[in-house]
Amino acid sequence: MEKSVKQIIAKYNTNQTRLMDILIDTQELQGFIGKEAVSDIADALNMSQADIEQTITFYHFLSTEPRGKFAIYLNDSAVAIMYGQRAIKETFEKEVGIKFGQVTNDGLIGLFNTACIGMNDQEPAAIINNRVFTKLTPYRVREIVRYMREGKNMDELINESYGDGKNHLPSLKSMVSSNIRRKGMILSDSYIYGSVTKNILPGISPEAVIAEIKHSNMRGRGGAGFPTGLKWEFCRRAKGDKHYVICNADEGEPGTFKDRVILTEKPELVFEGMALAGYAIGGDEGILYLRYEYRYMKEYLEDVLAVMRKNNVLGENIAGIEGFTFDIRIQFGAGAYVCGEESALLESLEGKRGEPRDKPPFPVEKGYLNQPTIINNVETFATAVRIIENGGEWFTQFGTEDSTGTKILSISGDCMFPGVYEVNWGFNVEDMLDMVGAYNVQAVQVGGPSGTLIGPDEFHRTLGYSDLSTGGSMIIFNKQRDLLRDVVLNFMEFFIDESCGSCSTCRNMPEVMKNKLVRILNGNGVKSDLTDLKAWGKVLLASRCGLGQTAGNPIISSLKNFRPLYEELLQKEKEFDQGFDLEASVQQSCRYVKRIPKFHLHE
Predict the structure, then answer these.
(1) 452-454 β-sheet, strand order
(2) Can you tell me whether residue 329 is helix, strand or coil?
(3) For residue 110, which of 67, 485, 510, 559 is within the disulfide window of CB 3.0 to 4.6 Å?
């Protein structure tokens, strides 16, 4: 084992900033990262064991204890539960003979819960040894467990469990479906691989590329909506030894899966967009930060990159442009929603806990390895290629004045046709519901748990930065769903589990708010509880990053738009709070923090 770990370390040139790669490879080698491995890594990288362990314990998919020969991670998102996750969970426990959070005595199977894995359009789903199993049923679970005990490998498990239902891309070795329901400029079949790089870039300057992106008025597709052209311009002007291009593919927002589909169906478009950005800002290195839940895509994407290098769309002097050298590597996360925040992503890229940085400075000035860096998401890079191909003016013909172009939506929940839809910005919610076959709708969660829960009286509203802004997640709930118990409570538990623990507000208030919600659900709530919840949500705005600032949104949004659901549960005879101890609730919440505070040996 010592030799193998040393080989892994050598593979990454004994580089501290590649600690995440070293830990992931070590975990996959033996199923966990034991004390000896921690010691070997610490010695080789000249780091303390405490620093290694604090990084391991931060990430959901890394472990210092064995997880089983077959590590099963069952998605517990709200949509998964809507589609029968509880029955799947009970069947796994019955067939394996253990509870979730445990490993069988023989070390064969481990059962674990996990947050949304980007499969809301094909739930219930689970990850088994980095391979995704979709549309699980109790029968399929029994078959899967039987195959495991018979000694079958992962490919045999998939073949015998799903047969011809596998993905149309054989190299993915997956049964995950793309479920593209509507195509636009990004998902269109009209894209010709490499055409922009080889036919347009040789005749256009980097400054002209940025000017065209600015003229298009494109804003980042990740949710924040910062003007893409301005970001690239700021980065190009920033002084540094190197300039980096980072693609944020850590789509951890529950209900979002469109980046998964783009990378499956149009990976060349995304990578060409990264190279285009590298040309524009004067960068020579790009990194795709891909969530660990999509580890099954690794070989497929590496093959795509290899072909692009062979065709001189990546590499040295690309398309014959002297000095234009740009290449891309893939960096996996290890299960931390907060790493979708750009500065937390940078910390993770550098081999640390994914704790957000203070701003300023911003990444365009001091980002990856303290060098100028642009960070855009998958859809943004793909869109940039089409803009340069057709022109910024062409792009402004789509969408609205302040929200130009198209938006790719991940639509799931109570509808006939869940999947990915590319629509023009300005599309309204009512038309969206008709498009996907959603009837008797009670509510729509726009933008995932961090977004807004709206009711029928707001279905006339449009998708765009001036009205309903969204990174792409749209979850539909019909009138049979218990919004407070099955949705809001689930979302609050998600935020509590995913907090990095860095801010006291984010570390404590979501748990306090959840406790108050549970009190109301149990019939012990009073009117002042609703006032408290609204006030406490404002406290979260003092958090360092977007996760903390929006962690109260499931309650605040539902309280605003579905207040009668709360009022129906209140004790009618009581008009004042009796017995809710805020200080005791805060103390209790501290015990639930999943991520230990940052520490160093010298402290």
Answers:
(1) 180-182, 419-424, 406-413, 473-478, 441-446, 452-454
(2) strand
(3) 67
Amino acid at 154: M
Mean pLDDT over 196-213 rounds to 96
In which domain, by residue range, is 80 found?
A: 70-165
> What whole-number distance in Å separates Cα of residue 126 and Cα of residue 400?
39
- Strand-pair category, 441-446 with 452-454: antiparallel
Of 514, 521, 531, nearest to 585 (Cα)? 514
Question: How far is 148 from 151, CA to CA, in rounded Å?
Answer: 5
CA dihedral of 38, 44, 50, 56, whole degrees rounded to 10: -50
**In total, how many domains does the chain have?**
5
Say if CB 565 and CB 558 are below 8 A apart.
yes
Q: CATH number of the domain that 448 lies in?
A: 3.10.20.600
Q: Are 291 and 252 in contact (CB under 8 A)?
A: yes
The length of the chain is: 603
Question: In this structure, what token pair is assigned to residue 268?
Answer: 């060349």
- What pLDDT score was predicted for residue 585? 57
The answer to whether 331 and 25 have CB atoms below 8 angstroms apart is: no
Q: Does residue 159 belong to any structural domain of this protein?
A: yes
Interacting residues of 396 by C-beta distance below 8 A, sequence separation 6+: 215, 216, 217, 404
Q: DSSP states of 338-393 as a string?
A: GGGSHHHHHHHHTTS--PPPPSSSPTTTS-GGGS-EEEEEHHHHHHHHHHHHH-HH
Indicate whether 215 and 315 sit together in one domain: yes
160 shares a domain with 188: no
Find tokens 């062979």 and name the residue: 310
- Residue 55 maps to a domain: no
Do residues 326 and 238 both lie within one domain? yes
Q: Which amino acid does the sequence have at 581? A: D
Tokens 């938006």, residue? 407
Question: Three-state DSSP class for 455?
Answer: coil
> Measured between alpha carbons, how far is 399 from 554 in angstroms, rounded to an integer?
28
Q: What's the pLDDT band for 227 if we cut at 50, 70, 90?
A: very high
Residue 77: which of 113, 116, 41 has the closest Cα? 116
Write down the mean pLDDT value for the chain: 92
How far apart CA 280 and CA 275 sit, in angstroms, is: 9
Q: Which amino acid is at 45?
A: L
Q: Which residues contact 360 (CB under 8 A, 6 or more apart)?
A: none
DSSP 401: S
| Cis-peptide into 361, omega within 30 deg | yes
Span 485-519, pLDDT tens digits: 999 999 999 999 999 988 999 999 999 999 999 99
Task: Count Cβ neighbours within 10 Å for each residue of 405-417 and write b for 16 or more, e otherwise.
Answer: bbbbbbbbbbbee
Do residue 123 and residue 200 come from a single domain?
Answer: no
* Distance from C-alpha of 125 to C-alpha of 88, rounded to nearest angstrom: 9
